[in-house]
Amino acid sequence: MTLDPGLPSEWARLHKLSPLLRSSRAVVALGSVVGTRQLMPGQHSNAWFDLGAVGLAAIAGTISWLVTRWRIHNGELQIETGWIRRESLRVPLTRLQAVDVVRPLLARMLGLAEVRIVVAGQGSGRTRLAYLTEDHAADVRARLLALAHGLEGDTPEPAERPVLSVAAGRIVRANLLAPGPLVLVAIVVGALALLAVNPTAGAALGGSAIALAVALALGLARKIGAEWDFTIAEAPDGLRLKAGLLQTRAETIPYGRAQAVRWVEPLLWRGPKWVRLEIDVARRRDRDRAEREAGASTRALLPVGSAEEAGWLLSRVLPGASVTPPPGSQVPRRAGWRAPLMRHNLHAWHDDAYMVCVTGRLRRCVVVVPLAKMQSVRWTQGPVSRALGLATVHADTAGHRFPGSAPCRDAAEAAQWMQLVPDLARDARQRAVKR
After folding, report:
1. What does the alpha-carbon distance between residue 316 and residue 300 come to, in Å, rounded to a whole number?
2. Which residues sit opposite 81 in a β-bridge?
3. Cβ atoms 324, 284 nearer than 8 A
């Protein structure tokens, strides 16, 4: 077995500092427990026990590094790991959905990065290379994307063309224009007013407001940090997204891999006329913690931007798609009995390439599903909908974040869609194969 990182077709190990980064989380968690214990009266830490726990974390990280090897061979990313229970993972690169290069703060200080691969049918929980040098990680990403497009593995990474960036100030303002901060302000104002009338009750409410403020501030800081310095670039191998403050993330989404795109217009964003554009790629539902944490932010094609910017970006990802409802796309009047507050905001339509569903009143969402990516079409009808002659049509894809759903459609129209949409989806897949 060669350890030369320049030969990905041969078995290789991860960087020698990987055990340090793997065990750092356990050390940080242990430090938090020790710090909390010291603050509690009558509680004392056991230095030998703490040192033993740190030593076990270091040993576990080292063993994990020693028994893990990887290579790119025969169009697959192959990873073998495990000591007591061996595991061999084979990932066909033709099923590759996205490639991320993640640089946590400690890894950046050491000049290292993690490569995460999202493939159809699986998240990035086990399909990760943590850690490689930053240059090696960029090289591995380029090789994976080249092989996924049927090119030679040593094909140089194509140059990118920056097309859009989001100012940090806009990211901050957009996250502050959310229900959470406004609710917090209302609670603080209520606590101050109650404090003047009933000091005891006001103090109790003030304590709850402080705890809520800390949790909210941490959540906002994490989201703002994840979307900080957001840039989008085009390249022959796909869209390249980069963002992050403390932990940076560089993500490449190959063209044609989008399972769905969601256009979001929160109520408080309608004044400045901002929208958010999100993308869904194929993944499994039981993703690991790191993948769940990343999904909220890094799957944003545009964290916040104007309708013109979002429309242009949508046309690059899904050519010919539109979020403007055509005549005849609204639900029937009797749907007001089923959804009285949203009836005027419910629209759905399809053509020979896309199915589009519009829902939401306070938070308008438009989900665009490419028919070529559709896995199945479902028709559901509850007791109330059955009495009103209504039904809901669902478009299922390999992504799971926001499937297309057209509620409160006329039952006859829904039955017609069930007959027509599968044929259109089959034709769309055939066209995609020919291209």
Report:
1. 15
2. 87
3. no
| 3-class SS letters over the chain | CCCCCCCCCCCECCCCCHHHHHHHHHHHHHHHHHHHHHHCCCCCCCHHHHHHHHHHHHHHHHHHHHCCEEEEECCEEEEEECCCCCEEEEEEHHHEEEEEEEECHHHHHCCEEEEEEEECCECCCCCEEEEEEHHHHHHHHHHHHHHHCCCCCCCCCCCCEEEEECCHHHHHHHHHCCHHHHHHHHHHHHHHHHHHHCHHHHHHHHHHHHHHHHHHHHHHHHHHHHHCCCEEEEECCEEEEEECCCCEEEEEECCCCCCEEEEEEEHHHCCCCEEEEEEECCCCCCCCHHHHHHHHHHCEEEEEEEHHHHHHHHHHHCCCCCCCCCCCCECCHHHHHCCCCCHHHCEEEECCCEEEEEECCCEEEEEEEEHHHCCEEEEECCHHHHHHCEEEEEEECCCCCCCEEEEEEEHHHHHHHHHHHHHHHHHHHHHHHHC
Of 111, 133, 117, 126, nearest to 15 (Cα)?
Answer: 133
CA atoms within 13 A of residue 9's CA, in its CB half-sphere: 6
Q: Which CATH class is domain 18-161?
A: mainly beta
User: Which residue would you say has higher pLDDT here, 239 or 303?
Assistant: 303
Cis peptide before 255 (omega within 30 of 0): no
Rounded distance between C-alpha atoms, residue 347 and residue 361, angstroms: 12
Weakest-pLDDT range from 205-209, 241-245, 395-399: 205-209
- Residue 45 in tokens: 């830490």
- Give the residue among 125, 124, 10, 113 at the shortest CA–CA distance from 69: 10
Determine the distance from the C-alpha atom of residue 265 to the mean position of all C-alpha atoms in its chain, rounded to a whole number. Answer: 18
pLDDT at 294: 43
Instruction: Please give the C-alpha separations between residue 165 and each of 100, 263, 369, in angstroms, as whole numbers.
Output: 18, 18, 25
Summarize the confidence of residues 291-311 as an average pLDDT: 74
Ramachandran angles phi, psi of 98, nearest 5°: -165, 155
Over pLDDT 90: what percentage of the chain?
43
pLDDT tens-digit series, residues 390-423 = 999 999 998 878 889 999 999 999 999 999 999 9
Band of residue 338 on the pLDDT scale cut at 50, 70, 90: very high
